[in-house]
UniProtKB/TrEMBL annotation:
Coiled coil: none annotated. Gene3D superfamilies: 2.70.50.70. It is an enzyme of class 1 (oxidoreductase). Belongs to the polysaccharide monooxygenase AA9 family. Has a modular structure: an endo-beta-1,4-glucanase catalytic module at the N-terminus, a linker rich in serines and threonines, and a C-terminal carbohydrate-binding module (CBM). It catalyses: [(1->4)-beta-D-glucosyl]n+m + reduced acceptor + O2 = 4-dehydro-beta-D-glucosyl-[(1->4)-beta-D-glucosyl]n-1 + [(1->4)-beta-D-glucosyl]m + acceptor + H2O. Keywords: Carbohydrate metabolism, Cellulose degradation, Copper, Disulfide bond, Glycoprotein, Hydrolase, Metal-binding, Monooxygenase, Oxidoreductase, Polysaccharide degradation, Secreted, Signal. GO terms for cellular component: extracellular region. It comes from the Eukaryota. This is AA9 family lytic polysaccharide monooxygenase. GO terms for molecular function: cellulase activity; cellulose binding; metal ion binding; monooxygenase activity. One of its GO terms (biological process) is cellulose catabolic process. It is found in: Secreted.
């Protein structure tokens, strides 16, 4: 039986505090860089406004850290999410509490990855939304893979400094309290090799609207075609 909106709203308010999550760690071509290049948010709470500057790299994410991760264009990166800071246990869900929704990865070419505030242009390189056949979300994939989301760095992008923005959007309360929850962290990276592509992008805030079809959605009703927020994935 489908839980009523009123009942679910009470459940969400009671459990969501225990179910927040945070992107923390990065792997490059199978090598664990831990959180050395992560602009770590102060806690695992979400951003809830699509008009907030915190949508770029989370609270405090406009400030850089000392570490830079290095990856080749065309190489593999993996970002890692867990519910609590410092917890990398695969025994715990990466993002629990019915926090269902898409997972997205964006990149931004910058002059200095350690100082750029994230206010520039972002292009999307990876996403997973909803599969109506399996009824699985991108967040389900995170939970099935110890919080890991792997993707390929576009081989054609120009070398240099970038910010990588990993995000999970929890839609479980979009209808009950009027908005989704956005969980993101930014990683400071240096891309080597590559080509000359400088993909056009979007800005955060600005990439999403509170009325986008993939945000104010009731995920407890049948979904035939979920529209992932933001631009299309760059495939050049």
């Amino acid at each position: 039986m489908r839980t009523s909106i009123a009942a679910f709203g009470l459940l969400a308010s009671a459990t969501s505090v225990f179910s927040h999550s945070i992107f923390q760690d990065m792997w490059v071509n199978g090598v664990d860089d831990s959180s050395t290049c992560t602009r770590m948010p102060p806690n695992n709470s979400p951003v809830t406004s699509v008009t907030s500057d915190d949508l770029r790299c989370n609270v405090g994410g406009d400030k850089g850290v000392a570490g830079i991760c290095t990856a080749p264009a065309g190489g593999n990166m993996t970002v890692e999410m867990h519910a609590q800071i410092g917890d990398r246990s695969c025994a715990n869900l990466a993002i629990g509490g019915n926090h269902d929704g898409p997972v997205l990865v964006n990149m931004s070419k910058v002059t200095d990855a350690a100082t750029d505030p994230g206010s520039g242009s972002w292009f999307k390189i990876d996403e997973e939304g909803y599969n109506p056949t399996t009824k699985k979300w991108g967040t389900d994939t995170l939970n099935s893979n110890c919080g890991h989301r792997s993707f390929t760095v576009p081989a054609s992008i120009a070398p240099g400094a970038y910010l990588v923005r990993a995000e999970a959007i929890a839609l479980h309360i979009a209808q009950t309290v009027g908005g989704a929850q956005f969980y993101m962290s930014c990683y400071q990276v240096n891309i080597t090799g590559g080509g000359t592509a400088n993909p056009p992008g979007v800005s955060f805030p600005g990439a999403y609207s509170a009325t986008d079809p993939g945000i104010p959605i009731d995920i407890y009703q049948p979904i035939a075609n979920y529209v992932i927020p933001g631009p299309a994935v760059f495939t050049g």
